[in-house]
Request: fold
Amino acid sequence: MVEAIRSYHARRGRLSDNQRWALNTLAPQWDLALFPDPLDLDVVYGRSAPKILEIGSGLGDTALQLAQENPDRDYIAADVHSKGIARTLLLIAQRDLANLRVLHGDALDLITRRLPAACLSEVLVFFPDPWPKARHNKRRLVRQQFVEALVHVLQPGGTVHLATDDPAYAHVMREVLGRQSALQKIHDGPRVPLRPRTKYERAGERHGRLAIDLMYRLQAPSES
Ligand SMILES: C[S@@+](CC[C@H](N)C(=O)[O-])C[C@H]1O[C@@H](n2cnc3c(N)ncnc32)[C@H](O)[C@@H]1O
Reply:
């Protein structure tokens, strides 16, 4: 059973007419939240190619850039934030990107309940909400339930790439992911240059908060 503890803030804010149009008109074609189960990603994208999920895609800049730079890979930008998803949809349509879809909703639900086993080659989690207060610890996205679901949806050899500018959250990530013996740490340190820099990261850097990147690889059962 999926825990009903949300890892995100309920954010309000008026949508522009354009954004409302995107959510009404573009979403039926591009939003996996509106697709029937069971989800078969090769059918969704009409081909067999590596599938990459970005959890907490925010304004969509990372997924949009990666999808544009890597036409041979298929991307999902997942966020609960309506404005960010609307912006991502508008840019998908404007740039005519065939290899990017959105998931307007809880990505934890997508990986725990909707995706089949071993369907993703990468999961990206950049600057998840840190929930710094101790009483909010259980709201952090990176917790036991997340790691179990991750191991289920990643293909052997697949990777998870996380970034945070909160050293306490980086510590939690190391602890939670470190408990899973099938995950082998392949990077723990400064930002990886190939990761696009988002508005959120730049704002942190202006206040002296530097990113810590963590990368893990899922070992095949024969390796562990
Ligand atoms: C601090 S923002 C960072 C956004 C983006 N990754 C960036 O670097 O600019 C964190 C984002 O994660 C999203 N988020 C948190 N939990 C989520 C979940 N379970 N499913 C989907 N999105 C989630 C929030 O809505 C928010 O947009």
